[in-house]
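EI: anyone free to look at a 112-residue chain?
SC: sure, send it
EI:
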Amino acid sequence: MAGKASIERLLRAESEAQQIITKARQDKTAKLKKARDDADLEINNYKQRKNEEFQHIAKTEESQSQYDELQAETERGIARVQEQATKHRDEVINIILEKIADVHLATKEEAA
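SC: here you go
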């Protein structure tokens, strides 16, 4: 009977070992799935942060480009005004001098 008891004990030990191995495999699979899910979450967060950074940089560069374009347009406008002022300077001076020199003297009765 000792042989039969030993065999039963070995079968129980083998069954327990199989259960331990099955549980270890299940735990390993669960841990791998959790690690994969955590990695996916971290990757998605990283992508989102980088996308937000890119959008911010693109918006800043677009704003800078618009500012540069507006600055160039303003400078062109100033140059045109200066050119016109230089071109018509003598004419403007003559008109101002005519208005200054053309004084009408009137008494109170004539003005009324």
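EI: DSSP finds three helices and no strands in the chain.
SC: 👍
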